[in-house]
Amino acid sequence: QLAAMARSDPASLAAVCNFCVGRRGVGAVRWLEPSDVRGLDLDATVQLSKGSIEVYLDEASKPEVGRGLNKAAEVTMLRIHRLDKDSGKPTTDPEAIDRFARKLKKLTAEQGARFVSYDAASGTWKFEVEHFSKYGLLGSDGEDSDEDLGA
Predict the structure, then answer these.
(1) How many CB atoms are located within 10 Å of the residue 73 CB?
(2) How far apart are CA 92 and CA 10, in angstroms?
(3) 106 lies in a domain?
(4) In sequence order, what are the residues at sequence separation of 6 or more whose Cβ sits closer than 8 angstroms to the Cβ of residue 48?
(5) Which tens digit of pLDDT belongs to each residue from 76-98?
(6) Domain for residue 151, yes or no?
(7) pLDDT of residue 145
(8) Rounded CA separation 1/7 (Å)
(9) Catalytic residue list
(10) Domain for residue 117, yes or no?
């Protein structure tokens, strides 16, 4: 779509509303304000991995808050489940799911983000950020070990 916009109206890339970058089966990020995407190298700027997102991997190239892609966005992470220790599959235990959802809420707040929702059936975790750093399941501690998280 960006290529088509660039061909038909290059100036339109200066303020793309609801600009979204996604990776099938992993998640997506949608910026909440119009974004200037002229000359943007998405591969070098946005890293969306299982359970985490990082924008501006190189701190030296990160613009000040509110500029470029360093601004408010909604992040959606897919296939984030609490795994059953015996089967290795997403747990169906309501208590374990509830503990995991509470852990995601706490982890979100600790990273300075705002928890939006968690759907245990699909493993969809949504949160909002004011600007970019690295967010997600980043070496979290607590009752679940990394191998228990479906991320």
Answers:
(1) 26
(2) 50
(3) yes
(4) 21, 22, 23, 26, 27, 28, 29
(5) 999 999 998 899 999 999 999 99
(6) no
(7) 44
(8) 10
(9) 133
(10) yes
